Amino acid sequence: MRAMVFPKLCVGDSKDVLKSFDGDIIDFVLTSPPYDNLREYEGFDFSFHDIAEQLFRVLKKGGTMVWIVGDATIKGGESLTSFRQALYFQEIGFTIHDTMIYQKNNFSNPSRTRYHQVFEYMFVLSKGSPKTFNPLMDRKNVYVGYSALGTNTTRKKDGGFATQRKRTIQEYGMRYNIWKGNTAGQENMCKHIDHPAVFPLWLARDHILSWTNKNEIILDPFCGSGTTGVACKELDRNFIGIDIEKKYIAMAEERINSLQGADDYDLFSISGVEI
Ligand SMILES: C[S@@+](CC[C@H](N)C(=O)[O-])C[C@H]1O[C@@H](n2cnc3c(N)ncnc32)[C@H](O)[C@@H]1O
User: Fold this and answer.
1) CATH 1.10.150.450 fits 8-137+175-258, yes or no
2) Atom of ligand 1 minimally distant from the CA of 222
3) Can you tell me the distance from the alpha carbon of 265 to that of 255, in angstroms, rounded to the nearest whole number?
4) Which terminus of the chain, N or C, has fewer Cβ atoms within 10 Å?
5) Looking at the DSSP assignment, which residues form a beta bridge with residue 126?
6) 34 lines ligand 1 (CB under 6 A)
7) Which tens digit of pLDDT belongs to each residue from 98-144?
Protein backbone atom coordinates (compact mmCIF):
# COMPACT_ATOMS: atom_id res chain seq x y z
CA MET A 1 0.00 0.00 0.00
CA ARG A 2 1.20 3.54 -0.72
CA ALA A 3 2.36 5.73 2.19
CA MET A 4 -0.62 7.31 3.91
CA VAL A 5 -1.17 11.01 4.52
CA PHE A 6 -3.04 11.81 7.74
CA PRO A 7 -5.77 12.48 8.52
CA LYS A 8 -7.05 10.05 5.93
CA LEU A 9 -10.82 10.27 5.40
CA CYS A 10 -12.64 7.78 3.19
CA VAL A 11 -16.21 7.73 1.94
CA GLY A 12 -17.44 4.16 1.54
CA ASP A 13 -18.65 1.00 3.19
CA SER A 14 -16.03 -0.07 5.75
CA LYS A 15 -16.50 -3.63 4.54
CA ASP A 16 -14.97 -2.61 1.19
CA VAL A 17 -12.62 0.20 2.22
CA LEU A 18 -10.88 -1.93 4.85
CA LYS A 19 -10.14 -4.61 2.27
CA SER A 20 -7.88 -2.13 0.47
CA PHE A 21 -5.71 -1.72 3.61
CA ASP A 22 -2.63 -3.80 4.35
CA GLY A 23 -2.86 -6.06 7.40
CA ASP A 24 -1.29 -5.23 10.78
CA ILE A 25 -1.11 -1.45 10.30
CA ILE A 26 -3.54 -0.02 12.87
CA ASP A 27 -2.57 0.57 16.52
CA PHE A 28 -6.04 1.31 17.85
CA VAL A 29 -9.66 1.32 16.70
CA LEU A 30 -12.19 3.53 18.46
CA THR A 31 -15.72 3.39 17.15
CA SER A 32 -19.41 3.39 17.79
CA PRO A 33 -21.22 1.39 15.09
CA PRO A 34 -24.80 1.95 14.04
CA TYR A 35 -26.79 -0.31 16.30
CA ASP A 36 -30.08 -2.11 15.81
CA ASN A 37 -31.28 0.46 13.27
CA LEU A 38 -32.04 2.83 16.12
CA ARG A 39 -31.04 5.64 13.84
CA GLU A 40 -31.39 5.47 10.12
CA TYR A 41 -28.23 7.13 8.76
CA GLU A 42 -29.77 7.74 5.36
CA GLY A 43 -30.95 4.11 5.20
CA PHE A 44 -27.54 2.37 5.33
CA ASP A 45 -27.12 -0.87 7.20
CA PHE A 46 -23.79 -2.55 7.90
CA SER A 47 -22.27 -6.00 7.43
CA PHE A 48 -21.06 -6.69 10.94
CA HIS A 49 -19.31 -10.02 10.36
CA ASP A 50 -17.27 -8.86 7.34
CA ILE A 51 -16.23 -5.65 9.07
CA ALA A 52 -15.30 -7.44 12.32
CA GLU A 53 -13.00 -9.79 10.36
CA GLN A 54 -11.39 -6.90 8.48
CA LEU A 55 -10.81 -5.01 11.74
CA PHE A 56 -9.00 -8.01 13.20
CA ARG A 57 -6.86 -8.24 10.05
CA VAL A 58 -5.80 -4.58 9.90
CA LEU A 59 -5.05 -4.29 13.63
CA LYS A 60 -1.41 -4.74 14.69
CA LYS A 61 -0.52 -7.53 17.10
CA GLY A 62 -1.07 -6.02 20.55
CA GLY A 63 -3.43 -3.45 19.05
CA THR A 64 -6.64 -2.60 20.87
CA MET A 65 -10.19 -1.73 19.83
CA VAL A 66 -12.90 0.03 21.83
CA TRP A 67 -16.36 -0.85 20.47
CA ILE A 68 -19.04 1.38 21.99
CA VAL A 69 -22.52 -0.02 21.61
CA GLY A 70 -25.96 -0.27 23.18
CA ASP A 71 -29.05 -2.38 22.57
CA ALA A 72 -32.42 -1.47 21.19
CA THR A 73 -35.58 -2.61 22.93
CA ILE A 74 -37.54 -4.60 20.37
CA LYS A 75 -41.03 -5.91 21.14
CA GLY A 76 -40.49 -5.18 24.82
CA GLY A 77 -37.14 -6.94 25.16
CA GLU A 78 -33.49 -5.95 24.77
CA SER A 79 -31.92 -7.15 21.52
CA LEU A 80 -28.56 -8.11 23.11
CA THR A 81 -26.91 -7.42 19.76
CA SER A 82 -24.02 -5.97 21.77
CA PHE A 83 -23.26 -9.33 23.42
CA ARG A 84 -23.70 -11.25 20.17
CA GLN A 85 -21.13 -8.93 18.60
CA ALA A 86 -18.72 -9.37 21.53
CA LEU A 87 -19.04 -13.16 21.25
CA TYR A 88 -18.34 -13.01 17.52
CA PHE A 89 -15.25 -10.86 18.11
CA GLN A 90 -14.05 -13.49 20.56
CA GLU A 91 -14.77 -16.28 18.04
CA ILE A 92 -12.58 -14.66 15.37
CA GLY A 93 -9.59 -14.21 17.66
CA PHE A 94 -10.04 -11.02 19.65
CA THR A 95 -9.43 -11.12 23.40
CA ILE A 96 -12.23 -9.51 25.40
CA HIS A 97 -9.82 -7.46 27.46
CA ASP A 98 -12.52 -5.61 29.41
CA THR A 99 -16.20 -4.73 29.33
CA MET A 100 -16.39 -1.10 30.33
CA ILE A 101 -19.46 1.09 30.81
CA TYR A 102 -20.05 4.61 29.52
CA GLN A 103 -22.57 6.03 31.97
CA LYS A 104 -24.28 9.12 30.64
CA ASN A 105 -25.21 12.06 32.81
CA ASN A 106 -28.59 12.10 31.11
CA PHE A 107 -31.01 9.75 29.35
CA SER A 108 -32.42 10.23 25.88
CA ASN A 109 -35.62 8.16 25.96
CA PRO A 110 -37.73 8.19 29.14
CA SER A 111 -39.15 4.83 30.14
CA ARG A 112 -42.36 4.07 32.04
CA THR A 113 -41.82 0.35 32.57
CA ARG A 114 -38.16 0.16 33.59
CA TYR A 115 -35.45 2.48 34.93
CA HIS A 116 -34.18 5.07 32.48
CA GLN A 117 -31.39 3.70 30.26
CA VAL A 118 -28.22 5.71 30.79
CA PHE A 119 -25.32 3.53 29.64
CA GLU A 120 -23.60 1.91 26.71
CA TYR A 121 -21.11 -0.94 26.71
CA MET A 122 -17.51 -0.21 25.78
CA PHE A 123 -15.97 -3.55 24.83
CA VAL A 124 -12.19 -3.28 24.97
CA LEU A 125 -10.88 -5.92 22.57
CA SER A 126 -7.29 -6.74 21.76
CA LYS A 127 -5.29 -8.75 19.27
CA GLY A 128 -3.12 -10.61 21.79
CA SER A 129 -2.12 -8.75 24.94
CA PRO A 130 -2.55 -4.98 24.65
CA LYS A 131 0.79 -3.38 23.88
CA THR A 132 -0.14 -0.07 25.52
CA PHE A 133 -1.99 0.90 28.67
CA ASN A 134 -1.54 4.39 30.10
CA PRO A 135 -4.05 4.37 32.98
CA LEU A 136 -5.77 7.63 33.81
CA MET A 137 -5.02 8.44 37.45
CA ASP A 138 -7.82 10.89 38.14
CA ARG A 139 -10.05 9.13 40.71
CA LYS A 140 -9.89 10.99 43.95
CA ASN A 141 -9.25 8.63 46.86
CA VAL A 142 -11.60 9.07 49.81
CA TYR A 143 -9.00 7.67 52.26
CA VAL A 144 -6.09 9.82 51.10
CA GLY A 145 -3.25 9.82 53.65
CA TYR A 146 -4.41 6.64 55.46
CA SER A 147 -2.42 3.41 55.33
CA ALA A 148 -3.74 0.61 53.16
CA LEU A 149 -3.04 -3.09 53.52
CA GLY A 150 -1.12 -4.65 56.35
CA THR A 151 -1.45 -7.91 58.26
CA ASN A 152 -4.94 -9.42 58.43
CA THR A 153 -6.46 -7.44 55.58
CA THR A 154 -6.33 -9.85 52.65
CA ARG A 155 -7.51 -13.47 52.77
CA LYS A 156 -5.58 -16.22 51.04
CA LYS A 157 -7.24 -19.15 49.25
CA ASP A 158 -6.75 -21.38 52.32
CA GLY A 159 -8.69 -18.88 54.46
CA GLY A 160 -5.64 -17.53 56.29
CA PHE A 161 -4.48 -13.94 56.14
CA ALA A 162 -1.71 -12.62 53.90
CA THR A 163 0.75 -10.02 55.09
CA GLN A 164 1.26 -7.19 52.67
CA ARG A 165 3.45 -4.14 52.64
CA LYS A 166 1.71 -1.10 54.11
CA ARG A 167 1.45 1.88 51.83
CA THR A 168 0.00 5.35 52.18
CA ILE A 169 -3.01 6.03 50.01
CA GLN A 170 -2.26 8.71 47.45
CA GLU A 171 -4.62 11.57 46.59
CA TYR A 172 -5.50 10.11 43.18
CA GLY A 173 -5.83 6.50 42.09
CA MET A 174 -6.49 4.70 38.83
CA ARG A 175 -9.89 5.31 37.35
CA TYR A 176 -12.51 2.54 37.54
CA ASN A 177 -13.91 0.93 34.40
CA ILE A 178 -17.24 2.75 34.57
CA TRP A 179 -16.80 6.18 33.03
CA LYS A 180 -19.49 8.68 33.86
CA GLY A 181 -19.80 11.94 32.03
CA ASN A 182 -21.68 14.32 29.82
CA THR A 183 -23.23 13.27 26.56
CA ALA A 184 -22.24 15.08 23.39
CA GLY A 185 -25.46 17.07 23.68
CA GLN A 186 -24.57 18.16 27.19
CA GLU A 187 -21.16 19.24 25.96
CA ASN A 188 -23.00 21.58 23.60
CA MET A 189 -21.51 19.89 20.60
CA CYS A 190 -24.86 19.14 19.01
CA LYS A 191 -25.43 22.85 18.64
CA HIS A 192 -22.86 22.72 15.87
CA ILE A 193 -22.95 19.14 14.60
CA ASP A 194 -25.74 17.86 12.40
CA HIS A 195 -25.31 14.13 13.13
CA PRO A 196 -27.80 11.95 15.08
CA ALA A 197 -25.34 9.96 17.24
CA VAL A 198 -22.19 11.87 18.12
CA PHE A 199 -20.18 10.57 21.07
CA PRO A 200 -18.61 13.07 23.45
CA LEU A 201 -15.11 14.34 22.83
CA TRP A 202 -13.93 13.53 26.37
CA LEU A 203 -14.74 9.85 25.81
CA ALA A 204 -12.63 9.74 22.64
CA ARG A 205 -9.77 11.63 24.29
CA ASP A 206 -9.70 9.46 27.38
CA HIS A 207 -9.64 6.20 25.41
CA ILE A 208 -6.96 7.48 23.07
CA LEU A 209 -4.82 8.56 26.02
CA SER A 210 -5.36 5.18 27.70
CA TRP A 211 -4.60 2.81 24.82
CA THR A 212 -2.18 4.67 22.51
CA ASN A 213 0.96 6.75 22.34
CA LYS A 214 1.76 9.79 20.21
CA ASN A 215 2.10 9.32 16.44
CA GLU A 216 0.31 5.96 16.42
CA ILE A 217 -2.38 5.15 13.83
CA ILE A 218 -5.99 5.22 14.97
CA LEU A 219 -8.98 4.09 12.92
CA ASP A 220 -12.68 4.87 13.27
CA PRO A 221 -14.53 2.75 10.67
CA PHE A 222 -17.87 4.48 11.45
CA CYS A 223 -16.46 7.93 11.97
CA GLY A 224 -19.63 9.98 11.53
CA SER A 225 -18.93 13.61 12.38
CA GLY A 226 -15.27 12.80 13.16
CA THR A 227 -15.09 13.04 16.96
CA THR A 228 -12.30 10.44 17.08
CA GLY A 229 -10.41 12.43 14.45
CA VAL A 230 -10.72 15.67 16.42
CA ALA A 231 -9.31 13.96 19.52
CA CYS A 232 -6.49 12.44 17.43
CA LYS A 233 -5.50 15.82 16.10
CA GLU A 234 -5.45 17.33 19.58
CA LEU A 235 -3.39 14.48 20.97
CA ASP A 236 -0.93 14.11 18.05
CA ARG A 237 -2.17 10.76 16.78
CA ASN A 238 -2.65 9.83 13.09
CA PHE A 239 -6.28 9.35 12.13
CA ILE A 240 -8.06 7.24 9.53
CA GLY A 241 -11.83 7.72 9.34
CA ILE A 242 -14.35 5.89 7.18
CA ASP A 243 -18.05 6.65 6.77
CA ILE A 244 -20.52 5.47 4.21
CA GLU A 245 -22.18 8.88 4.09
CA LYS A 246 -20.39 11.58 2.13
CA LYS A 247 -21.87 14.45 4.11
CA TYR A 248 -20.52 13.02 7.40
CA ILE A 249 -17.02 12.74 5.97
CA ALA A 250 -17.27 16.37 4.86
CA MET A 251 -18.39 17.25 8.38
CA ALA A 252 -15.51 15.28 9.91
CA GLU A 253 -13.03 17.03 7.65
CA GLU A 254 -14.35 20.43 8.61
CA ARG A 255 -14.29 19.63 12.33
CA ILE A 256 -10.78 18.22 12.22
CA ASN A 257 -9.49 21.16 10.21
CA SER A 258 -11.11 23.73 12.47
CA LEU A 259 -10.64 21.63 15.64
CA GLN A 260 -14.17 22.39 16.75
CA GLY A 261 -15.04 20.39 19.82
CA ALA A 262 -16.34 20.79 23.33
CA ASP A 263 -16.62 24.43 24.31
CA ASP A 264 -14.61 24.31 27.50
CA TYR A 265 -12.74 21.11 28.08
CA ASP A 266 -10.40 20.57 30.97
CA LEU A 267 -8.65 17.22 30.59
CA PHE A 268 -9.86 15.60 33.78
CA SER A 269 -12.77 17.70 34.90
CA ILE A 270 -15.67 16.27 32.92
CA SER A 271 -15.30 12.56 33.37
CA GLY A 272 -13.93 10.12 35.82
CA VAL A 273 -13.46 12.05 39.00
CA GLU A 274 -15.38 10.75 42.02
CA ILE A 275 -17.57 8.21 40.28
C1 LIG B 1 -22.98 5.95 15.71
S2 LIG B 1 -22.51 6.82 14.29
C3 LIG B 1 -20.87 7.31 14.69
C4 LIG B 1 -20.81 8.71 15.25
C5 LIG B 1 -19.42 9.17 15.61
N6 LIG B 1 -18.86 8.39 16.69
C7 LIG B 1 -19.44 10.65 15.97
O8 LIG B 1 -19.02 11.02 17.09
O9 LIG B 1 -19.90 11.46 15.16
C10 LIG B 1 -22.31 5.56 13.09
C11 LIG B 1 -21.87 6.01 11.70
O12 LIG B 1 -21.66 4.85 10.91
C13 LIG B 1 -21.94 5.18 9.54
N14 LIG B 1 -22.12 3.91 8.81
C15 LIG B 1 -23.23 3.09 8.77
N16 LIG B 1 -22.96 1.98 8.06
C17 LIG B 1 -21.67 2.09 7.62
C18 LIG B 1 -20.80 1.25 6.86
N19 LIG B 1 -21.24 0.09 6.38
N20 LIG B 1 -19.53 1.66 6.62
C21 LIG B 1 -19.10 2.86 7.09
N22 LIG B 1 -19.88 3.70 7.83
C23 LIG B 1 -21.14 3.32 8.09
C24 LIG B 1 -23.16 6.09 9.64
O25 LIG B 1 -23.27 6.91 8.49
C26 LIG B 1 -22.88 6.87 10.95
O27 LIG B 1 -22.30 8.13 10.65
Assistant:
1) no
2) 12
3) 16
4) N
5) 64, 95
6) yes
7) 999 999 999 888 888 999 999 999 999 999 999 999 999 999 998 88
